[in-house]
Amino acid sequence: MDCREVQENLSAYYDDVLEVKDKKLIEEHLDNCSNCREELESLKQISKILKEAPPVSVPDAFAEEVIQRINQDKIKPIGKKTRKLTSWQIVLPGVAALLLATFIGISLKPVAMNQELAETKMMDRFIANDQGAAKENLALDGATGAGEEFSVRGSEEDLARQESAEIKSKVAPMEPNALTLPDQEEDSEASRKVIQNGYLRLEVSNLEGTMDKIAKEVTASGGHVQNSSMYEDEFNGIRKPTRGYLTLRVPSDRFEKMFKDLKGLGRVTFQETSGQDVTTEYVDLEARKANWLAQEARLREILDSAKNVDEILKVEKELARVRQELEVMEARLKNLTNLTQLATISIELEVAKSREKITTPSSLGEKIQVAFITSTNQMLEYLEKGVVYSVSFLPYLFIIGILYGGFKVLRRGNKKED
Amino acid sequence: MLLVDEELIKLSKEGNMEAFSRLIERYQDRVYAIAYRFFGNEADAKDVAQDVFIKVFHKIELFRGESSLLTWIYHITANTCRDELRKRQKRQMVSIDETPLEILHQEIKVKNPFLGPEEVVLKGEAERELQSVLNQLPEDQKMIILLREMQGFSYEEIANTMECSLGTVKSRLNRARGALRQLLLSREEVTAR
């Protein structure tokens, strides 16, 4: 082979896709030609630069935007009237908004003409804003039915109903899926993969005793002690254990109880729990694994029907690559499963500084103290939940408020007319 | 709840947007990475990557599972990038060389610096150099480099994606790498002067 021939095949040689005899010829040439060697080196170098280029990450909300664009495209050809509607889902709040607006319209009879304009605008805005709020839409669906008795402007409402009916029929194949989605989400709550972590710092009177006790309790609950260490300090000339660290792994469903029990073992000086939801990562890994498995099966089929050694070698090389991918994936899955099945609790134990202060709840006073702390924590937890719930009710309150306000204005109006 | 591609594809064909959304999330990084390297800026990459998935959605009916979904999506990506580029060249709106490079905060780490002639180029602002050099490659060569070097495609996969023979892949890749090398070398000469 001369330089020209070698250089024509150098890239394939570098990628190791050449046949054995060609490979040999090139290797022989490379041994004697520094020019070509240099060229090969630069190939390697370029490849390296490209492979090491920093990964780029996709912008936020990328998938949502795509779905939005698809929905917009989908509706366009359907009808002249419904051009701005992007999905049947958002028609529902649109109708609800129309009803509300109609209602307000009635209560402000003198400006009815301008109101009409405002209504359509409002509807558009609802349509533009309310995408993706599937659950709320379903709730509003009920409201639409209830609102029927207010249908004063028959014609306009009919139009809206027609529109929604039209869209429902056109996008019919989509509907059942779309409807089941919220349920699916609820189902998946049960199969959520969450990594639970807890951190606890306790002041105890008897360090070794407490550590033994913890170890026993963990084993009894089906978990294990992953890590345990104890440190001694000199104390009035005597070396005594003063600090201990434990890392516990307990079954996730026992995590909360365990954490609570542990808190009863001494005076809590710091505590923290956290949960990391890795469901998406898990699902993705499972899916990718399944894909690789499918490919593996396909390669095996090919291997069975391979005709010559060369083919077999090629397929086997590919198989090895797939196996490698699979192993990496399995390892990650195993790790994730382990992390989600067993929650991690890290405990730091300190011997109480003052001797008199015995922190294991034995006397009545300490029991009261512990009970007090526990109930305070519980109360805080309930308060937090309460705040969350009341905030989540705000949208409903808003609508109820408008309806109520509307009623009042209407009544006052009626009285005046009387 | 663990859905493999096949199930997601089936659901997507039935119009389940949630399923399709999952598919997008599974492949978006790879598609975006190609578009990004192909156009060299975030805005174009985003537009084109979105176009790719819209096409995937409309064509998913036609996907019969003969190739892997990944290859199929890459095929659409390669075509979309090429078409978009040609459209632009026709309009002569944006010259690719002038496309702003708002990139590359990170410098390339050359872990094992080889004492070759390119070394000077390789260090320094290698990343920026790289993108602008990539931009100077003809589209076919650019795509093949992206697929082979950045996405780690095999020759077969490239052949499927770009709809050409293995021989073409081999020669085109060789040419692309040669061109890339020449461009890097000429840059080095410029900087050396």
Describe this entry's structure for a reader.
The complex is a heterodimer of chains A (418) and B (193). Chain A is an alpha+beta fold. In chain A, 67% of the residues lie in helices and 14% in strands. Chain A contains 14 helices and five strands. Chain A has a five-stranded mixed beta sheet with strand order 2-3-5-1-4. In chain A, a hairpin with a 2-residue loop joins strand 2 and strand 3. The radius of gyration of chain A is 35 Å and the shape is flat. The N and C termini of chain A lie far apart (109 Å). About 19% of the residues of chain A have low confidence. Chain B is mostly helical and 193 residues long. The longest helix of chain B is centred in the last third of the chain and has 27 residues. Chain B starts with a helix and ends with a helix. About 17% of the residues of chain B have low confidence. At the A-B interface, helix 1, helix 3, helix 4, helix 9 and helix 12 of A face helix 1, helix 2, helix 3, helix 6 and helix 7 of B.
Summary keywords:
heterodimer; A: 418 residues; alpha+beta; five-stranded mixed sheet; 14 helices; 67% helix; flat; B: 193 residues; mainly alpha; 9 helices; 70% helix; globular
